[in-house]
Amino acid sequence: MVSFLKEAEELFEEYKDYIPTHREICEILDKEFLTKEDLAKLLNVSSKEDIMLMAKKAQKLTRENFGRVILLYAPLYIANYCQNSCVYCGFSCRKKYKREKLSFEEIENELRKMKEEGIDSVIILTGEDRINSSVEYIEKACRIATDFMSEVSIEVYPLYEEEYKRLSSIGVVGITMYQETYQREDYDKLHPFGPKKDFEFRLNAPERALKAGFHEVCVGPLLGLSHPKKDVLCAILHAEYLLDKFPKAEISISFPRFRSAGTDFIPSYTVSDKEFIKFLIIARLYLPRVGIVVSTRERPSLRDALIDVCITKMSAGSKTTVGGYAEEKDEDAEAQFEVEDRRSVSEVVDVIIKKGLRPEFTNWVKGVKSI
Amino acid sequence: MFEIGGKMLKSRLFVGTGKLPDYSLIEKMYYEAGIEVFAVAVRRIGPNTKHIKNVLEYIPKDATIMVNTSGAQDHKEAVKIAMIGRELTNSDWVKVEIEKDTKYLFPDNYETLKTCEILVKEGFKVFPYIYPDLNIAKELEQIGVEAVMPLGSPIGTNKGIGCEVLLKPIINEVKIPVIIDAGIGRPSHAAQAMEMGADAVLINTAIATSADPLKMAIAFAKAVEAGRLAFEVGILKEYEYAQASSPLEDFISG
Q1: Whose CA, among A51, A329, A366, B187, lies 20 to 30 Å from B117?
Q2: Which of A272, A274, A294, A291 is nearest to A339 (CA)?
Q3: Could you give the ipTM of this predicted complex?
Q4: Which residues of B fall within a CB distance of 8 Å from A371?
């Protein structure tokens, strides 16, 4: 499983100082499929003109493969108990604040409110705590969600294959699993204790989910925690690895950038807008059929610009506090990270339509995949 | 007019709706481009929300909905999607689309065959999307599908008729309609398919992702019509060498 990490490491080392010429970039863009070497080279492009050129091809590939459609979803945080000590995270167990867990009735209220807002695709999130947010609890929450939404996904702690099977059998179709960083040493330092310390168990979670019958997987690093180019390269090869092994699956990729979350953690790396955009474009160029997700961590103007180029899926009207839809809450004080785009679903929909695209709320009709 | 799936249709251009920027284009295509058959992916038929209406609400009631099983990975999923689709749309036309990879999206003929066997028995009007294989096309004909839909080239590539040598035998040999589906990028590609003798074409990407989908749909409709007319008249044979328009021997003998 980790062979792609070794490959990414070797590629990165070989090409880290390689700056492709404009002519070489054009030759790469003329290809139908890029090689891994092309991918590693493009990570070092810095000229604005060349990035714009790459963006043009990325846009063409996105439209050809995904049409003029942007899928919209919203996260539902049902619990924020966490056993992990991630130094950068607002949910860290070292952080002292009121831990909450929604009752099933509250979950239903949240879903009802989300549905009223027009959301039809939900990702159920919890902190990583097997006791307070047991698999049974998640399963029940997902069951309720399938009554309201056409599509239900999860973003919870890594599960065992049998546990994924349970969720898949009730109609949960997708899993998001951020590796945070693919660099083992940094990962180890950033996660001092707690079950999340097990790098491999997390890394293999998407594969277990796909084996268990899940249909969609989203992977990616949290940019800023370790060397960004290396992490991006690893994430892209991770997505490719999953596609090769599970050619039927719909794989997505996302590069959330670190945002402060009430901790005093200062990331070792910052990723500029230019670099961030370039990373997303490169992911599209290398993997034309892979979904690309942009979260509300990014500010509205940047998200809107990206819609035109390579994004296929985005969250809208997101509340990142537990119980934030049915009840007004202080997002800054209680959220896992800072939300930059606080626009309502309607506002996001308007932007998408103005750009000549169609907002879509349904990717999988409830029941179609729970066979 | 031509008969297919128990209906008489004027237009031989079928359109997929999945990649359209705006579903309201469907009605315009029906009235302005004369398109009568719209393929709809069941996986995307969501409920009405405050922001968007269900795609089905945009399809004129006299148009034909072709339920599409895209997203299905085997015959079990395809059958279930077809059943759900029939419930949702009230249409028994189903395009069987089963792909096993998300990179090339090539249809899986084996699973498609199994699906069609089941769906024909269930009373569907079945339109299988296939990799161009004459043997499979003939088997499907035996099973009782309404038409076969071989690909022109991989989905969404706009590369046109990339496998004419495989398509031609299917057009020549099967007695049911042949609809070229996938890969057609330009109106001229569609005209070529029709000149070859295809009974219809199904287009999605080339129309939906163009700068003006309605205008492009009209362009395709005209090309399809032109190609069909030419086929019906009979396409002239190509010659390696120029031929005098009046026979040379007239002059020699004169």
Answers
A1: A366
A2: A294
A3: 0.79
A4: 76-77, 80
